[in-house]
Amino acid sequence: MEFSRRKFFQTLGTGAAISAASQLSVASFASAAAFESAKISGGPILLNENENVYGPSAKVTSAIRSAASSANRYPDQGYAGLKKKIADLHRVTPEQVVMGCGSTEILRVVVEALLRPGKRVVQASPTYEAIEVSGRTFGAEVVSVPLTKEFAHDLPGMLAHVDGNTPLVYICNPNNPTATLTPRRDLETFIAKLPANCHVFIDEAYHHYAGESSMYRSFIDDPIQDERVIVSRTFSKIYALAGLRLGYAIASAELANRVDPYLIWSSINGIAVKAATAALDDVQSVHDFTKRNADTRQEFFNQAMARMLKPIDSHTNFVMMNVEHPCQGVIEHFQKNGILIGRRFPLMDTYVRISLGTSSQMNEFWRVWDTLPFAKMMQMNHLKS
């Protein structure tokens, strides 16, 4: 769904709305100084990769520094401890945990274990591209079904493409790049209708940002008894360890054992193991990052609505927004002004994806937005309509 703006402007004139949004920005970010991440000197502002802009927590950073002294050692001894910690967190056995070099490696090995030339994988469009890239690499047919008008997975449409030759369906929830949810009850109904030989991979990379609601419940935290389901998480997002490359999945012991031989030996580095162990223990920082993101996200919508823009309701640390103009020109405008935003996505040529940054970065984003040649014209056109 898209945010309604009409009622907002019935109570505020345009100038007053932008002024109020600017004042909100100052007030809401006043307490965020401790979280500010410094921009790399001379480099662009990075709002393009959905990273946790605040960096690893102090406890995790300390663990990384400590682990550096053992960089000369292979990390094998730490694997078992981390796998058990993940298993205990999710109330499963260590045999059900698959760890990889980022969740991208897990996506790849699931494809390698389940697909081969002539087999089919079904996914949404647009969505995270790793399954499609891996599927085509291994000779599989990739069927992409457009999202619904609410930007959810078109589950009936996807089911129509599933047959006995389809061993895998991919669901990214919340979805990247749209930041949207597909309702949990709809997913359960969909999974129950899949053929017995069809597995479903549920990618929960942005789980922590989604919160709990009637629409969303994690398939790890609230599992269903179905051995065809494999669910992945990553340390790249809320834990701010994208550069160390570590992800994991929870599956049945049989499916995990089937996937395991395709993993690269020792693909997880020792510093990542120590950092992830510390990150799982640092529950308070996860809470703080989640709240900071929710506040920043709300402020983004305040600023967008003041400018009569149309963002899609977001459940992640990024926002997809309709700019009503070809997105490539907007992307290039920001790049010329020292800000990188998300790339162009199929079927969404007038939308841009913006990762949420620090308060100063988002203020700069809006300053640059206001210099777009069509920005004021869009605003006036909406006021007249």
Q: Would you kindly provide a written description of the structure presented here, covering whatever features stand out?
A:
This protein is α/β, with parallel strands linked by helices. It has two domains: 6-56 and 284-384, Aspartate Aminotransferase, domain 1, CATH 3.90.1150.10; 58-281, Type I PLP-dependent aspartate aminotransferase-like (Major domain) (Aspartate Aminotransferase, domain 2, 3-Layer(aba) Sandwich). The protein contains 15 helices and twelve strands. It has helices at 6-11, 14-28, 58-68, 76-89, 102-114, 130-137, 155-159, 184-193, 207-210, 253-259, 270-281, 283-306, 327-336, 359-369, 375-384; strands spanning 45-47, 97-100, 120-125, 141-146, 168-172, 199-203, 229-234, 247-250, 310-311, 318-322, 339-341, 351-355. The strands form three sheets. Strands 2-8-7-6-5-3-4 form a seven-stranded mixed beta sheet, with helices on both faces. Strand 3, helix 6 (130-137) and strand 4 (141-146) form a beta-alpha-beta unit. Helix 2 (14-28) runs antiparallel to helix 12 (283-306) and helix 5 (102-114) packs parallel to helix 6 (130-137). The radius of gyration is 22 Å and the shape is globular.
